Amino acid sequence: MSHAMSHAPATLRIQKFLADAGVCSRRAAEALIREGAVWVNAAPAAPGQRVTPGADKVTVSGKPVRAAPQPRITLAMHKPRGLVCSNDDPHHPKNIFTVLPPEFAQHRFFCAGRLDKDSEGLLILTTDGDLANRLMHPRNTVEKRYLVTLKQPFPLAKKPLLLRGIVLDGERLKVEHAALVAPDRDHASRQVDVRMHHGKKREIRLLFTTLGYDVKRLRRYQIGALPLKGIPLRAVKPLTSREIKLLFKKSEE
């Protein structure tokens, strides 16, 4: 190979370029390209088109994309109540990205599996679009565990309703596992430990509310085999590759 050839700039498929730059996952990039939101050198991009980082000008919805790939960082956050998981909600300027430590603030993170504003607990933030996709893809059954605190005691007799689920607006809401925490003599408890693999927006709250029980507090304390334990409220902990693997593992018990 000639000396000149070895310095030829590397080209990347446009989907990988956008994922490496932290814009979105490859799958989401394909959708943006189909919608005509991605342009290369002032012309609409085609799926699979190759670009040269640093030479080609790429924009998404009119905004230029920085060529430098972001470092791959995955954080576990102990989310407090009152913060939203989106940075584009004008009604809630307080979002999880406002509490990130300064050394992470310049990176673009994806929130892999959101928690609503009133919920708290373990949240995964990553600059790795492909990892975010894997954590959220329905095909990968990533188990999430929650402690639900209710305003009214929940009777053991109604537990099958949580597992069988209910249909609301054409969608089935259910959990994969439920256990009452320290039930009283009447076999009822204000605290229920639940596990689920999927998780539609506000699914747990809607499920309990529809059954007639108001959720006072909702806390996610584990994802896969990775616990929240040890991470203080509002703090983040960078995850090692071994800890990232734990997210996809089933917990022992």
Characterization of this structure:
The chain has helices at residues 3-6, 14-20, 26-34, 102-105, 129-136, 159-164, 203-210, 241-246, and strands spanning 12-13, 38-40, 43-44, 50-51, 58-60, 63-64, 74-79, 110-111, 120-126, 144-155, 166-168, 171-173, 177-180, 188-196, 215-223, 226-227, 236-238. The protein is an alpha+beta fold. The chain has 3 domains: 3-64, Structural Genomics Hypothetical 15.5 Kd Protein In mrcA-pckA Intergenic Region, Chain A (Roll); 74-140 and 229-246, Pseudouridine synthase I, catalytic domain, N-terminal subdomain (Alpha-Beta Plaits, 2-Layer Sandwich), CATH 3.30.70.580; 144-223, Alpha-L RNA-binding motif (Alpha-Beta Plaits). Strands 7, 8, 9, 10, 13, 14, 15, 16 and 17 form a 9-stranded mixed β-sheet that branches. A 4-stranded antiparallel β-sheet has the order 3-2-5-6. A two-stranded antiparallel sheet has the order 1-4. Helix 2 (14-20) packs across helix 3. The longest helix has 9 residues, at 26-34.
Supply the key terms.
alpha+beta; single chain; 3 domains; Alpha-Beta Plaits; 8 helices; 21% helix; 17 strands; Structural Genomics Hypothetical 15.5 Kd Protein In mrcA-pckA Intergenic Region, Chain A; 253 residues
